[in-house]
Give the backbone structure.
Amino acid sequence: MVGYVAQMGELALLPFLAVFPLGCFQFAMLVVVNIPDAVGDMASGKHTLIYFLGAVRTVRLYAGVLALAYLSLPVLVWSGLPLEVALALLLVSPLAAWQGWRMVRGAWTDPDKWNSLGFWSVGLVMSSAGVEFLAFLLLIEELIG
């Protein structure tokens, strides 16, 4: 947001609209990469999200946050997010659906799958940011106009 204000000279709603789905994906990624630490965190008394919610509810929250990112798109578009940006995010939805399906089906319980879950969660954040960037790049003249 600081970069946006530095370049545009003011704070606007659009950056918040664009960042909301990315924030959902970032939160989901943080949940996934912290799963391997859950047992050690609990043993050492570290009170993490998994400690408070339990593993099953945390996985449900993970899936819910992924769904929220996509279910919020109509509201975000109605609020001013360009339709092209929302449609670009839909390009990455198969990856989010696959990750959510894997988590709900119990991949988080298998240590052999932790690296893959983490890798693809980071991939979801980065690819979503990338497609948003490309969509905004294609719209730059219209937005600055």
Notes: The chain is about 80% helix and 0% strand. The chain has a mean pLDDT of 91.
